[in-house]
Prior knowledge:
Layout lengths: L6 E3 L3 H10 L5 H6 L2 E6 L2 E6 L14 H20 L3 E10 L9 E10 L3 E10 L4 E11 L16
Parallel strand pairs: 1-2
Antiparallel strand pairs: 2-3, 3-5, 4-7, 5-6, 6-7
Amino acid sequence: MNELEIENRGLEPGFFDTICSNYLDRHPVLNTLGIRTMYMGRGITGMRIIPGPEYSSAGYRVHGGIVATVIDVAMSRAALTVTGKLCRTVDIHLSYMAPALENMALIAEAWVVRAGETLVAVEGTVANENGQTILRGMGTFIVDKKYPALWEASTGPTL
Length: 159
């Protein structure tokens, strides 16, 4: 584990360290929401959030947009680990399976299904701390070729 306590599940160490030092802190929304990266590997990522009452709707249920945000970020991060570039959401499909309750940890896990030069197909789930599936998602992400690479000196993966 690095100083951020993010587990490296097989990424080249220089690439992993560059993502951790140059990319993770450039996502202010993740800090605001309290979304934390648990692990990254080639084509996979795991993220965690413990949403409090400020993110709830009626009945102590977490607003669906918060759950959607955590899976969207996890899927985009999984795409990044394969392409070496920022990937932007083109299309996302979500199926809510159960309510997420406030103050209960939610774990988002995402994996790349197929990566091309331009588009990346990713799937993922969000489960609560008891392992109950809250959401299943799939999305298409575009490789952002206009945005400068944050880790040009890295020996990260290529397409």
